[in-house]
Amino acid sequence: MLDFARLPKIAAAAMMLAGASIAAPTNAQESTDPIKLTLHDWTGQLITTHIMGEVLKKAGYSIEYVQADYLAQFAGLESGDLHVAMEIWETTGREAMDAATATGKVENLGETGMQAKEEWWFPEYMKEKCPGLPNWEALKSEACAEAFSIPETAPKGRYLGGPVTWGGFDDERVEALELPFEVIHAGTDAALFAELESAYQRKAPILLWIYAPHWAPIKYKGEWVEFPPFSKACYEDASTGVNPDSAYDCGKPFGPIWKVSWSGVKDKWPGAHKAISAFKLDNDEMGAMIAKVDLDGKKVEDVTAEWIAANEARWSEWIKK
Q1: Cis peptide preceding 213, ω within 30 of 0
Q2: Lower CB count within 10 Å: N or C terminus of the chain?
Q3: Spatial CB neighbours of 128, under 8 Å, sequence gap ≥ 6
Q4: DSSP H or E stretch at residue 89
Q5: How many CB atoms lie within 10 A of CB 180?
Q6: Residue 256 CA, distance from chain mean position
Q7: R_g (Cα) of the chain, nearest Å
Q8: What pLDDT digit, counting tens, does each position of 21-57 carry?
Q9: C-beta of residue 90 within 8 angstroms of C-beta of residue 257
């Protein structure tokens, strides 16, 4: 029940005339300024962000979606020009996240419930052409590199990385592990998986960045390359790892996908801060939603609406007073 006495009289009258049925923000004293949620360039992140944004709208908040670079967004979060980022992957974003939270201007709002894996991946049929896979050392052979080559990179193999904005240190890894491969970055998430689809249908050579949660490692038979295990020291200390002269001579980290916010969110929109902290999804349901968009051609907004309609009992707890 709205406490109209605590709202400006004009706003209360306007809501009564409009017959508004949307609840006010959890705390009527919270700011009516829009909460700015960042959007990136992969389907899963668009889904998590729209789910959170639409749930916050149902709690009465004003929401603005802002396109932002995955790693460069931290400058905006620190300044308060951006407010919430729903997916920071342990695999690629932990270093930037830790640096931002160390300033005190960005807050880690906890895990999303999803576990991230991002690594080099190859179709099962490539094992015949590159014996020794999934061990990374198989990639050091000239014959194996040539098996993964394309005319533009031959005799070097090609590794198809994600968009440059994703980070991931693939170029550094190739150099550190002395792999006869050239890193070519896909322009977009869609282009990355379109190329996988094309290569897989033709049984053409391909070695690329695959991540989970996602439909690709479920739809296609293949394996992730097994690099030397990740350690923080491997990324920071060149003397650590298989190459004593280079950092990044190991695999990518695995782990949670995190939510972060500008540190001012907890004071300006405390109810939203509580709701975002409570947000949880798992890999299976996210993979299914990504498939609906990428494979079935549905719009992100429609898939989001379906999830919200089917899970009211869950998200209503996030915004509960």
Answers
A1: yes
A2: N
A3: none
A4: strand 84-89
A5: 18
A6: 10
A7: 23
A8: 344 454 457 999 999 999 998 999 999 999 999 999 9
A9: yes
